[in-house]
Amino acid sequence: MGTVDVANKDVTASLAEKKPKVVFVLGGPGSGKGTQCANIVEHFHYTHLSAGDLLRAEIKSGSENGTMIQNMIKEGKIVPSEVTIKLLQKAMLESGNDKFLIDGFPRNEENRAAFEAVTKIEPEFVLFFNCPEEEMERRLLSRNQGREDDNIETIRKRFKVFLESSIPVIEYYKAKGKVREIDAAKPVGEVFEAVKVVFTPKDEKVTA
């Protein structure tokens, strides 16, 4: 076990030295955050890390860690924060970049506290795509007619879970003046205009 701890400490120390700029991206299902993350990557050269994608990739790799994650998900358990955080740290180091969008994490207050405790990194800010439930429902239902998990009941349940778990995280960072809230109900182009303002340094003009 000792060597694993040493390896984790090295990762944390190497990352801390880079002083990476981390932005947490939060928004409910159908808020359009995936599309906006792609725009930010293209326009502002951030690396986009999705906690869900990293977990899925780890499962696919067939590693011991991946098997453990798969079993937990199968049993309906929540994957421990530390597991997700280690995957995020590894991806951050391997990317060679120092600017990151972390998408869909922290999902709850425990994730948030663990991320700061383990990585010693506090996010620059939280980008919160706020979209009314009715608009999210409309988008998800029209977008995915064939998808099993996109019936109205499931959508409402997912939205409720998002609100209950993520709102405390948003409130925590709001108290620190670190939340940049975007009205995600507008058309994609208008939403990105608002996003650009958030990511453009104050002394620079927003460019098209």
TrEMBL record:
Swiss-Prot/TrEMBL keywords: ATP-binding, Cytoplasm, Kinase, Nucleotide-binding, Nucleus, Pyrimidine biosynthesis, Transferase
Native organism: Hibiscus sabdariffa (roselle)
Residues at which a ribonucleoside 5'-phosphate binds: R56, K77, I78, V79, G104, F105, P106, R107, R147, R158
HAMAP family, alphabetized: Adenylate_kinase_Adk (MF_00235), Adenylate_kinase_UMP_CMP_kin (MF_03172)
UniProt xrefs under Pfam families: ADK
Domain notes per entry: Consists of three domains, a large central CORE domain and two small peripheral domains, NMPbind and LID, which undergo movements during catalysis. The LID domain closes over the site of phosphoryl transfer upon ATP binding. Assembling and dissambling the active center during each catalytic cycle provides an effective means to prevent ATP hydrolysis.
Tagged with keyword Kinase: yes
EC class name: transferase
Cofactor: Mg(2+)
Role, per record: Catalyzes the phosphorylation of pyrimidine nucleoside monophosphates at the expense of ATP. Plays an important role in de novo pyrimidine nucleotide biosynthesis. Has preference for UMP and CMP as phosphate acceptors.
Subunit structure: Monomer.
E.C. code: 2.7.4.14
Organism lineage string: Eukaryota, Viridiplantae, Streptophyta, Embryophyta, Tracheophyta
CDD domains: ADK
Protein name, per record: UMP-CMP kinase
